[in-house]
Design a protein that fits this description.
This is Glycosyltransferase family 2 protein. The protein is globular and about 55 Å long. It has one domain: Spore Coat Polysaccharide Biosynthesis Protein SpsA, Chain A (Alpha-Beta Complex), CATH 3.90.550. It has 345 residues and is α/β, with parallel strands linked by helices.
Length: 345
């Protein structure tokens, strides 16, 4: 899986790199919300052109789809969203975000569709620019962003030690966010699905961008994943997209999504034994649908973008197991090295 790292040098914005489709933006980002207004406010700001670097509102749209709850976004917040955002509140009879995602993609206009299944995940300031750059590399590029949890351990573990929303908020405030967007790396750890690090297979991405024709070829999100939170539907999408014929997997090494604590289905919102049973149900459902257990896709990704100094500790921890492995088991593909850059914004 360890392949080459590619860096694009550009002083301009994404609109110079990508020709948008006639009458619409190049990229559509679909964000799903349910019962998380505090966390969603930060996530949505992190997707705004005010926070994202090197792009303008005309380069992309953000489609916010919220399934109804007793705790949805306020009218004041919705009214304040940037002009390239649209908000859609919908009723949902099943406890899954699958239908909301398919609806959001269905009303989107971009040539590329980026799915963020969990609206509690903030992003770093170069995500939009580098997604657009990634798609410029290949007509069949699937661009993914690695995932992290706020805190020094997985939130489903930290909750047993008293970690909660207040502790999460304090950490985010401590780095001077949003002025210090890349400081999120300083207060985070790899998410469970990305715990293997950059250079071994991951199991999902919570910010995955797919060309629209490939999305159509996949048939969108599979609506048979009807368990709470969608079960393993996001892992299923990641695997099917990465394994789609001819796809080039592009990973944004220097960017990330950062999960804020909100009592999610598998990230601390349930007692440990309840969560364990739910995960077992999710695994069994996946096996019924796909006729095999879930296995992470084996890809040879292109690593794209600038490398902020804050990411170096994660590069080191990702490389350590491979460097310690016997020579004959190490990946044969070479790595093209480049200078790490510091980023504080």
């Amino acid at each position: 899986m360890l392949t080459h790292i590619r860096k694009i040098m550009s002083g301009g914005n994404a609109s110079q790199d990508v020709t948008v489709t006639s009458g619409g933006p190049a990229l559509s980002i679909v964000v799903i919300l349910y019962d998380m207004p505090l966390q969603a406010e930060k996530t949505l700001y992190s997707l705004s052109a005010e926070y994202q670097q090197g792009v303008s509102e005309s380069d992309y749209e953000v489609i916010v789809v919220e399934n109804e709850s007793d705790n949805h976004l306020s009218r004041k917040l919705v009214a304040s969203l940037p002009k390239n955002f649209s908000y859609h509140l919908r009723a949902e009879r099943e406890p899954t975000p699958v239908h909301a995602i398919n609806h959001g993609v269905g009303i989107s206009r971009g040539r590329y569709v980026c799915v963020m299944i969990d609206g509690a995940r903030m992003v770093t300031p170069g995500v939009v620019r580098n997604i657009l750059r990634g798609h410029r590399l290949s007509d069949k590029a699937v661009v993914t962003v690695p995932g992290y949890h706020i805190g020094d351990q997985l939130q489903q573990e930290a909750v047993d030690d008293g970690y909660g929303v207040a502790e999460d908020e304090a950490l985010i405030s401590s780095i001077g966010w949003p002025a210090n967007g890349y400081g999120l790396f300083d207060i985070a750890c790899f998410s469970g699905s990305c715990a293997a690090g950059f250079f071994r297979p991951n199991s999902e991405s919570n910010c995955i961008s797919i060309p629209r024709d490939i999305w159509a070829g996949l048939g969108g999100m599979d609506t048979r994943f009807n368990l709470r939170g969608g079960g393993l539907v996001n892992l299923d999408l990641y695997k099917r997209a990465c394994e789609f014929p001819g796809v080039e997997h592009v990973v944004l090494l220097g960017e990330g999504t950062f999960h804020q604590f909100h009592g999610g289905v598998t990230t601390g919102g349930e007692a440990r034994d309840v969560r364990a049973r739910l995960i077992e149900d999710m695994q069994r459902q996946y096996e019924r649908i796909r006729a095999e257990p879930y296995r992470s896709p084996q890809t040879r990704p292109v690593f794209l973008g600038e490398l902020p100094r804050q990411v170096l500790k994660f590069v080191h921890s990702s490389a350590e197991p491979l460097l310690a492995a016997p020579l004959q088991t190490a990946p044969a593909a070479p790595v093209a090295l480049f200078k790490a850059e510091s980023a504080s914004g």
